Amino acid sequence: MASAYEKQMSNPSFMGAMEVLPIIATLDNHDYGLGNADRNNPYKDIAKKYFMDFFQVPETDERRTRDGVYTSYMYGDVKKGTSLQIILLDVRHACSEMGGGGPKDENENGIHNETMLGDAQWEWLHEQFSEPADVRLVVSSIQLIATGHPFFCWNNISSKELDRFYKFISDSSYSGTTIILSGDRHVGGIYMHNLTDSDDIDIISPPPPVPVNGISSSVYEITASSFTHTVPLPPDAPDNFCWNPGGSTSEECDDPDPERIYPYVRVNHFASLTFDWANRVVTADLVSTDATLKSHAHHYNLPDSGETLQSVEIEF
């Protein structure tokens, strides 16, 4: 980890950006010392210190003393209807082993204590949502809505915690509209989950949408992954990144997920959110970067840098 941070600090492009752009950050597995590590990672305290020092977090910051790097920021003006709260979760320091909890996640009675955030972070999250805001961006380093793949995500660690999050943001006592931002997957995607899903709804004559997330009955997730190492379609992708071995198209290779709106983005990209405060709309885009893979023998056309690849408008 030390050499990785030293390498990043010698990158003129990144360090130049840090000097002129406000950067707020959370960590994921590559910053956490072990691939796909959970709360049992023996190196998590060391990883946290490297992270804190690299992003120049003050010694007096509460993140220095608590278990995790979660934090939040507030921008804009609540009275003018232009308030934006950004909540950066830590989904590594307290999370259970993937797959329903392992032996180390059992309590003294042998019962699995599955969690994504841990009690302290859940309590903190309630405090953040208790603050008034027009829009809340909740940043989870791993995917939250996705359920169609076997990789690290909320559903594959604890579906109970995923349901808890949905119920949490549907609480009518909280103001504002929540949007989720995530990464990790090395592919991009836009997801939408209906927070009022129920097996009891009459499909022939469904009731009108119930506004439980701001003015919406749904929550969107924007997965941007990654800026430099997105996995393309075969033949350039590893076999485990194609749902149907031997496939070569998005239809064949993308995992089946009913809540993903479009096929995966498989070129280098980033997410951009544009706020139209007057018309109460957030436009979320996945935008192509300078494709570092252009030197490879791709069999499909790559977009130009700055091209919008996918987009969704979210009313609030």
Task: Please explain how this structure is put together.
Residues 101-107, 199-203 and 294-299 have low confidence and may be disordered. With 316 residues, this protein is α/β, with parallel strands linked by helices. The strands form 2 sheets. A 6-stranded mixed sheet has the order 1-2-3-4-6-5, covered by helices on one side. A hairpin with an 8-residue loop joins strand 1 and strand 2. The chain has 7 helices and 9 strands. The chain has one domain: Alkaline phosphatase D (PhoD) (Purple Acid Phosphatase, chain A, domain 2), CATH 3.60.21. The radius of gyration is 20 Å and the shape is globular.
Question: What is the strand content?
Answer: 15-25%
CATH architectural label: 4-Layer Sandwich
| Mass-distribution shape | globular
Number of helices: 7
Average residue pLDDT: 88
CATH-defined topology = Purple Acid Phosphatase, chain A, domain 2
Q: N-to-C terminal Cα separation, in Å? A: 40 Å
Biggest sheet strand order reads 1-2-3-4-6-5
Q: Which CATH class?
A: Alpha Beta
Kindly provide the radius of gyration, computed on alpha-carbon positions and rounded to a whole number of angstroms: 20 Å
Question: Main β-sheet, in a few words?
Answer: 6 strands, mixed
Q: Please, what is the CATH homologous superfamily?
A: Alkaline phosphatase D (PhoD)
Category by helix and strand content: alpha/beta
SSE sequence, one letter per element: HHHEEHEHHEEEHEEE
Helix content: 10-25%
Q: How many structurally independent domains?
A: 1
